[in-house]
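EI: anyone free to look at a 476-residue chain?
SC: sure, send it
EI:
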Amino acid sequence: MTSGWQMILEHVVERDYCCGCGVCAGVCVRHAIQMRFNDYGEYRPYLASDCTGCGLCARVCPFLDGNANEDELGATLFEKMREIKHAIETGYYRDAFVGHVADPEVRWGCASGGIATWLLETLLAEKAVDMVLCVSPNDDPTLLFRYEVCRRADEIRRCRRSCYYPVTTQGVLAFVAKHPGRYAIVGLPCVCKAIRLAQQRVPPLRQRIKYVLGLVCGQTKSRSFAEYVCALGGGDPHHLSRVEFRVKDRSRPASDFGLGFTCVPEPGRKQEGTVFWTQGIDRAWLDWYFTPNACNFCDDVFAECADAVVMDAWLPEYCQDAKGHSLILTRDAWINGLFEHELEHPKKAVLRRIQVEKVIRSQMGVLCSKRGGMRDRISRLRQTGLPVPVKRWNTGAWLRPLGIGRLELARYQISRQSRVMWLECGKNLAAFQSGMQDSRRAVDRARRRYLSYRISNGILLRAGLYRRWAMTDFYS
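SC: here you go
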């Protein structure tokens, strides 16, 4: 019989579908699995000691075929709740809000409107949980971010802002297993799914993790992304010692955020700088530089297994405000009650309800790229004879935006090539950009072709057919 570890190794790791969440390592009762960085700056599980063959690691893997998908998990968690609704884009939801924290200093220090920070602090203040598990900057230059156990509001505020850097849950899940208490955990969609799978199999996690909170995700990044942006700003990527994501500038809109970095190339000499979205981050992000392959085959945008999900308000009426706004979808009734109470009796947050259609519209680019573009990526895999992951996907899409297929495949190629090229070039920016020229030209040609159809595609969008391409019949 094939062991759980062998299944993960053969069907996930070796096929490069591992998202690096670390839940498999966190639940291993023998601590036989350890998460380590591979050569490309991506977390991967490794067998560090003898495997007992219990199979638990395989049952919690979010990318292993045969485990429950987001539809099945969402139905188990939320389907029978009162006032619950469902949209094919978002999964289950109860209500939708937009807003920001009232304290301008806290708001300015957060990635968007600071509502995730407010919610976590409120869970602690209301004694709904004893501890919060979220991602914090780390002083170790070999591991710039990691999950932390937060017991106080000031510790939570240290975790504010986004993190476009690999993190693993291995350590904090092992902590939860050993230390009784009530926890809330914040994670990306793949992490939320893995936690829910683990709760089905591991009683301490089911009993102790009271709330799973999600963040909308278009893609994650390897460690190389931070190094590359550092190099764009004139820093030495070999000696990157600190990164601060989502830096705000009062003279720029919320969408033109920055990445601050610190390098120490030699004792006593420090390099510091900030690179903003329009100064090169946009190219790396939109063309999927350093995006792990798992993101190419993820169809969950709105963290469908989470009790609530928070995101940026990428809507015209909000994105020009440099201070930032947050959008929230609630699923859990008690958490929804917190938002309703703050809406009616505002103290620490400024909130109002918003139509779920606007929430979906705010993330439509991500939805179309992750879900609609997956059709092309899976087709490419089939053409090359590589194993195809089982997704909530249907090949029978009859309508698609003109020019989109070539663009998505060009991005896919860059996501695969950039990880290798950065390593082969020794993290030298000029050599990397030279080596990526042909792929960048291919993306540029595909993008120009796609944009040449903007009038035709605009008609499809206004008719509602663009949305249908990305969503309708998506589920097989």
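EI: Residues 67-221+299-362 form one domain.
SC: 👍
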